[in-house]
Amino acid sequence: MEESSGKRAIVLLEEEANRIRLLISNQKNSLCIAHCKAFEEVVDTQMYGLSRQIAFAVSLEAITNNEGQQLLSDLERDLNRMYHEVFAERQEIETGKEG
Fold first, then answer.
1. In 3-state terms, what secondary structure has residue 5?
2. N or C: which end of the chain has fewer CB within 10 A?
3. Domain count, the chain
C-alpha cells in the first residue's frame, strides 16, 4: 500500500480514537462515568469498533500491526487515566461530605 494511504489510515484511526476520548471527557463532569453501566458498555462498544477498524487497516496493509496496537494502547492508557481522575475526584467529594 502507498505510504500516503498508510498515513491517511493512521490519521483517520487517530481521529476515531480522539472521538472516543472526547466521549469520555465530556462525561467527566457528570456522575455517569462513576455510576452508569450503560456508559461503560458504550465505551466498550466504541473500543471494539475501533479495534475492528484497526484490524481492517492492518489487513489492507495500510498500517502495521504495531502501529494499530500502539494506537489502541495509547487510547486505553488515556481512558484509564481519565477514569482514575473521575474516581479520585469522586472519592475526595465523598470524603469531604463525611468530615
1. helix
2. C
3. 1
